[in-house]
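User: Mind token order:
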Amino acid sequence: MSVAEGVRFGVLGSLRAEVGARPAGLGGPRQRAVLAMLLIARGRIVPAERILSEVWEGSRPASPTTLHGYVADLRRALEPERPPGAPARLLVREGPGYALRAAPAAIDAERFTDLAVRGRRALEDGEPGRAADLLGQALALWRGPAYADFDGAAFAAPDAARLEDLRAAVREDRLSAVIASGRHAAAVGELQALVAEQPLRERGWELLALALYRSGRQADALAALRTVRRRLADELGADPGRGLRELEAAVLAQDPRLTPAPAEPGRGPSPAPPAGEPAPSPGNLPFALSSFVGRDGDLTAVARLLEAHRLVTLTGPGGVGKTRLALEVARARTDADGPWLVEIAGLHTPDLLTATIAAALGLPAAASADQLAGMLADRELMIVLDNCEHLLAPAAMLVHTLLARCGGVRILATSREPLGITGEAVYEVPPLPAATEAAELFARRAAAAQPGWAPEPGGQERVAALCAGLDGIPLAIELAAAQCRTLSVGQIADALEDRFTLLVGGPAGRPDRHRTLLGTVAWSDQLLSPQERLLFHRLGVLRAGFDLETAAAVTGVAPVLAPLSALVRKSLVTAEPGTAPRRYRMLETLRQYALGALSPEELARARERHRAWALTRAESAERHLRGPQGAALLEGLSRDQPEFRAAFASALTEGDGDYVLRLGGALFWFWFRMGHVAEGLAWLSEGFAAAPGAGAGTRARARFAVAALRYLAGRPAQAYEAARTAVEEAREAGDRVTEASATGYAAYLGLLAGAPVDAPALARAAVEIARGTAQGWLEAETLMIQGMALRILADLPGAGAAFREAIAAAHSSGHDWAADGAAWCDMKTACDRGQGARALAVAGDLLAAMDRYGDISFWLVTVHSAARALVLTGRAEQAATLMGAVEAIGERAGVSPELMDPLDGPREAAAVRGALPPEEYERHAARGRALSRQEASALLAGLIARN
């Protein structure tokens, strides 16, 4: 099926279409909304039922006949030369819905995204002139707000927000390129307009201050930095992020690094470190958002315990300051590796504890405590394991395994009760002394909340009495101090006293201090306006950080900015500095209180909104994961993973297996790329069990996800059966995208499983179906799969041709993963032909690409294959060294190239072992086992350079 040519679409402004360079009549608002929904879907089928529901949201749904009429009108407008009765080529009917088969290059939003990514890469590569040109071209495509015709329409909001966020980043990137080109003064005016328009995006202020400084205007640069500091404090109650703080210090010191270096021929000047990304540093501890008051004795005592014990647990009631004390102790250490913070307060599934710790440490997903211990066996580091009380038994078992097997690991845990394992040193964190440290904490937080605040005459005693009434609990004191904007200390004390009278005793079994903390939070809650209180309670369903749009979607509160800003000012919500768009989070104690304040009916509605948001978030991201924005979107999905887990859990509680399958189908590529194989299979298994009657389209996408994840898990026979079923279900649903993917995988997996399958015919069919969808990324993947199947069948010329086509299609669509995957397969084909030098040249390109992604699995299989290529070029000793490195690093990471790549991996290992006598192989492999990943990469890169 060919796709209509000469048709172009615009969504960066009001919706428009051009046919042969002439405007096409798109009809009225509803008809235009139908077209917009199909454009947002990026070639996927949109069920007619969903179109009717979302286009006519808030009014009586139209009939299918009305929708059919709109589609017919759009077809006539977009394909005016199509003969009557001829099948549509562009707006097609498939299964239960419609799809728009427009090439990405025909849509201005896709061209914008491509130019944005190319411009950012040029900037990072030191080509500011080229970057400014590409980014300028990208911005020139905009004619107004994205999807301007559909402001407020729920179906358009996620994609419009994504594009607007990317537009803001592109404006900043272009001005960064202008500065890097030496045109500092020319950038100032635009930057002043930019920060006036978007005053809470910190990068714009960084660039403005840098441009002013480089233009010889140091005083103006400092004034700009003071302005943004004041703006952030007034509107968000937040401090500037690291970039702004470092830049301000550099300007004050007149740091010579702020002066651009002379441009080298063919290269732009180096960006100033303070205005760029900070250099990576060990560990992941967050910066402190406020001063740390008192606890000198506690700091010393805990530090001494850590010197003498490998497990120290800080205990005490909620809000007493366990986490803050642990972080301050950790910040004072000078470990070369870490310290590393692992927050598990939002984790309620014990099976995911190991994977959560691995992710926090930047490691691949670990399936067991033993596997995680293998990864950490040779490291010396400290882990801060925060909020263990709700997972006490599994946390204790995991900590015991790590300490028993990893002699260089120390753990500082926080919990409301000890872990109870051998070797544990327990330190109970006491409340702050009311008359001294607690009163000082109150005074500092009150002065931060209300600049110039000071206690009235005789007020010191009142503050001390108030802090005593709060039991010296830091969280309670900070919440009370936040009220100094509107109340005197006496009024605060009176309100608090009344509140405690109302909540005397609290629920049975709670410690006294815990009951006091709940009273304090309830009292703060009572001082909120109705709108603020509604927002505060409903935000409790969110497990992790969130942005404005998420808050609005999940709580149903609109407009959300004013009440959310009030919650930040009143210390009930924290704004995360340096984030753009700005992100927020709630302390776990406050989140639990907010959740408990909802009635059962309101909680059910809040969770329903949360599930709807999570599905929209995942499906919106999924449509762009295999394009130029893929890396950034994967990072965002990782950040939102606690929300997806909560959505899965609440859907299963409600018995909504259909939802679980839809969400799983949308998150499949995220799971596949990030290594969450066991988790993905578990959710999908539960979804299928709970929804035996799910629709064919939902089943097809979820079933294909099962097939691909089983393939990664090393179960080709089961993966093949799932792929076959997915093909049948996709055909039933008319889902050509899933049919193409599943058909391609069925060809390859059938060969791996030894099934009687006509792999060449299936692979060709997959490519043809993919081409008919006009999805470049899909064509790239199916071509890559075709090449892999042909390699197994020893058709090396055919495989090489398929891989070259796959790489071209992947580069054209921005699907870097497919390009790199096809290149890796082409590298192995070169080895099959005895062309070791060409294989090494490909490996060099892949190593450079992997520096951007940090994919340990891909790195391991690439180096494993490169070792075979080295043997072919007569360097068996170096090949054995690299095999030793792969063996050791893979064991620590829980990844085996021989299991991941069952056809070529064993052959590659045998080729290297067979090239040397056993004792010689072992001697060189032992040297390799002592290498780090960076050292092994440097060794291979040097060998390739000398090739």
About this structure: The two ends are 46 Å apart (CA to CA). The first strand starts at residue 7 and ends at 10.
